[in-house]
Amino acid sequence: MMPGLFDAIAPLLAQDAASPNNLTTLLFLVPIPLLFIFMIYLPQKEQEKKRRTMLAALKKNDRVVTAGGLYGVVMSIDEPGDAVVLRVDDEKGIRMKFTRSSISRVLEGSGKRGGAADPDFGSSS
């Protein structure tokens, strides 16, 4: 830490806030919220916007991964109920129902391929 930083903050809480030293210290503290906005809040907001766009564009036969790490192919989407039915195993015909928000990402190459026939797609051995 910088020596004297806490010594500079303490006078800000005192009664006499009009002295030049206090104003200088205040000028050093003003950029902190701006840094927070530009380094944390705005990138997080942009990432959330991309996620909402991805979930809105979700369609049948998309290959997806859930937040729990389960691979599956979208079989149906219930818009009002916010539910998605995923086929997780072709051989046994296993289908599971998830909330749309549990989809963490859509895999590249989504479409007709998928399930156990795809070697890159979580088939059980």
Please characterize this protein's 3D structure:
- Helix content is 33%, strand content 23%.
- The chain is rod-shaped.
- The chain has a 5-stranded antiparallel beta sheet with strand order 4-3-2-1-5, covered by helices on one side.
- The chain contains 3 helices and 5 strands, in the order H-H-H-E-E-E-E-E.
- By secondary structure, the protein is an alpha+beta fold.
- It has helices at 5-9, 20-29, 31-56, and strands at residues 63-66, 71-78, 83-89, 94-99, 103-106.
Profile the largest sheet.
Answer: 5 strands, antiparallel
* Strand order, sheet with most strands: 4-3-2-1-5
Distance N to C terminus: 55 Å
| Beta-strand proportion | 15-25%
Described by the principal axes of the CA atoms, the overall outline is rod-shaped
Q: Point out poorly predicted stretches.
A: 113-120
Mean pLDDT, to the nearest integer, reads 80
Radius of gyration: 26 Å
Number of strands: 5
> Helix segment count?
3
Name the helix and strand elements from N-terminus to C-terminus, one letter apiece. HHHEEEEE
Helix content bin: 25-40%
| Oligomeric state | single chain
